[in-house]
Design brief:
single chain, twelve-stranded mixed sheet, rod-shaped, mainly beta, 222 residues, three-stranded antiparallel sheet
């Protein structure tokens, strides 16, 4: 008659156990039979986002875990890997280690939001990704920017959803969500540039007349 013998794990504690490599033996004859047990430890991997890795591993087994560096969380928001904490502390997203005991790992992430700046004049700075809760600084290089064809753009202010935030050339906002800021400008005639050009032309004409008269006097004087 054939009999089936089942091996059960021997629990040391919640994070260590002796595990039978073969769970069942079928025997039909009398004799000595045994199970081979290996020591295993439990790896706990925690993350605000889904990362596989938790489970039982043999003593001395090499374990490799990779955390996603960037996780999209919707338009203009993402989670960026910041490092591992717990029994292993590192900024590297990829881990390789030997299971010589129970281990706990926590994948730390920071939330970032995108700041978009819209401007008809290429004279603004501050756009980009920012950690949640951080202040972003909006800046224009100058309040008045000269443009081609004797035009000048005068900075009006920073707007969000058609509402003005500030008319200062430098302004800071807190990044608790994705934001789109518009730098508004008034484009008009650059009268100062026209005046300077007219003055320059008049000066050139005067110099040319002076040189002409001097040369003419020299010709008749000789």
């Amino acid at each position: 008659m054939e009999h089936t013998i089942t091996a059960h794990d021997v629990i040391v504690d919640k994070t260590s156990r002796y595990h039978a490599s073969q769970h069942q033996l079928k025997i039909s004859d009398a004799g000595e039979y045994g199970f081979e047990y290996v020591l295993q430890h439990f790896l706990t991997v925690e993350s605000p986002y889904q990362i596989n890795g938790s489970g039982w591993f043999d003593q001395g087994e090499e374990v490799k875990i990779i955390a996603p560096v960037e996780i999209p969380l919707g338009k203009g928001t993402r989670a960026i890997f910041h490092g591992w904490k717990g029994d292993i502390i590192t900024k590297e997203s990829s881990l390789s280690f030997i299971m010589n005991g129970p281990k706990y790992l926590s994948a730390e992430y920071v939330i970032q939001h995108l700041l978009t700046i819209e401007s008809e004049v290429d004279a603004v700075s501050g756009a980009g990704w920012y950690d949640e809760g951080i202040y972003a600084i909006l800046m224009v290089t100058e309040r008045n920017i000269r443009l081609p064809r004797f035009q000048v753009a005068t900075f009006v202010g920073w707007f969000e959803d058609s509402s003005i935030l500030s008319d200062n050339t430098q302004y800071k906002i807190i990044m608790n969500s994705p934001r789109t800021i518009t730098a508004q400008w008034h484009v008009g005639v650059d009268y100062k540039a026209i005046f300077l050009l007219v003055v320059l032309l008049i000066a050139v004409v005067i110099v040319m007349i002076f040189v002409y008269k001097k040369n003419k006097k020299g010709m008749y004087g000789s």
